[in-house]
Amino acid sequence: MTYPVNAPISQNFGDNPTAGIRPGSPDYWIIQQFGNYQPDGHTGIDFSCPVGTEVSAVASGRVLHSGWMAGTYADNPWWVAPGFAGICMVIDHGTFIGIYGHLSRNIVPKGAWVNEGDAIALSGNTGGSTGPHLHFEVLPDGYNLNARFYGRVNPLPYLGSASIGPAGDIKKTTEPEEDDMTPEDRRMLKAVYDAIFNGGTSMPEGKPLKDLIHDNFTTVKASLGRVETNTKKEA
For the whole model, what pTM was predicted? Predict the structure, then answer.
């Protein structure tokens, strides 16, 4: 196996659980923004890398999904967060399913076979992302979506024997896919994150934090509504 990107881990599996966050907590904006989507903690691992970094298949397998994950949880059998995951890829790697999220562009289409180390996508900052990174999840054979972490397990043991090597050759290209989160949506999301964790250096002057959170929540909900509307029109 190989690592999906040659980059440091910025958030580990199980980090930042949301179950105990209550109104008045400094982290309550996470619930307001995204809902209680990770009660036990982070469902994958994040790799910190610039937008456009080549993402490799960690093992050989068949592509089950390639593109923006729209719809609802009921519309995909892996419970990949609609809208929040942004442009993503789901690959059946045989003994597990790999989920690659917040991409900027997918290189291979649904149904394609990829070999270990092949370049499959470019990392990005799409969906509910607070900064450029690759989010990677593992659903093992026999997964139970109603179990802890929605059936996800720590990817690190799967990657434990992996070596970080050059990505495979790009064998197929597609046109870049469009992110339905607008620059204004992303600015607001980053401002809220910065206000909580970095002292608010990028928060608009004179804007109370509670108003900023409310505005950001409203704009992101509108963005997800546009994604759903566009998906219905395409169907």
Answer: 0.66
